[in-house]
């Protein structure tokens, strides 16, 4: 279970049951649409050649043992995903027309050992992307 904000906001929580691919099975390069709920455990993967809201560009992990709180998780996610953005997109975040955010573990999944953040990019005006942003 993750807390995450997709393009509709800077962070959402992954926890409620949804139809689609489990967030633990989402891979770098997958394209996704925004979920209808704030707490999600799964997301619909979309073919990147079709219009989509988001594209996963990295997965990073925290080495914190105790749950640090949502604010600390947000700070970690933004800092940890940033260097991965350039490696995936092929240009710096400042040069790119894209923005990024991430899914992060809920407190409940943290207790179960989940430390994975799923970094994804999107258009700041929330328009649909078509094709991959991999550069």
Please tell me about this protein's structure:
With 135 residues, the chain is an alpha+beta fold. The protein has one domain. It is 19% helix and 26% strand. The protein has 2 helices and 9 strands, in the order E-E-E-E-E-E-E-H-E-H-E. The N and C termini lie far apart (30 Å).
Task: Please indicate the count of domains.
Answer: 1
User: How much of the residues is beta strand, in percent?
Assistant: 25-35%
Residue stretches low in confidence (pLDDT < 50, at least 5 long) are 1-18
Widest beta sheet: strand line-up: 2-1-8-9-7-4-6
Average residue pLDDT: 85
The number of helices is 2
> How many extended strands?
9
Helix-strand sequence: EEEEEEEHEHE
SSE-based structural type: alpha+beta
Please give a quick description of this structure.
With 135 residues, the chain is an alpha+beta fold. The chain has helices at 70-89, 107-111, and strands spanning 2-4, 12-13, 21-22, 31-32, 42-43, 45-46, 54-61, 99-105, 116-122. A hairpin with a 7-residue loop joins strand 1 and strand 2 (12-13).
Layout: helices, strands, pairs:
Layout: E1 2-4, E2 12-13, E3 21-22, E4 31-32, E5 42-43, E6 45-46, E7 54-61, H1 70-89, E8 99-105, H2 107-111, E9 116-122
Antiparallel strand pairs: 1-2, 1-8, 3-5, 4-6, 4-7, 7-9, 8-9
Q: Main traits of this protein?
A:
alpha+beta; seven-stranded antiparallel sheet
């Amino acid at each position: 279970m993750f807390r995450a904000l997709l393009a509709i906001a800077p962070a959402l929580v992954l926890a409620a049951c949804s139809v689609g691919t489990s967030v633990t099975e989402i891979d770098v390069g997958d394209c996704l649409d925004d979920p209808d709920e704030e707490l999600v455990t799964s997301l619909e993967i979309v073919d990147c050649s079709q219009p989509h809201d988001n594209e996963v560009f990295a997965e990073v992990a925290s080495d914190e043992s105790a749950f640090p709180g949502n604010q600390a998780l947000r700070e970690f996610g933004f800092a940890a995903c940033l260097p991965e953005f350039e490696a995936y997109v092929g240009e710096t975040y400042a040069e790119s027309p894209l923005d990024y955010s991430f899914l992060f573990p809920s407190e409940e999944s943290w207790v179960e050992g989940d430390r994975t953040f799923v970094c994804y990019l999107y258009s700041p005006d929330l328009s649909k992307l078509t094709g991959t942003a991999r550069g």
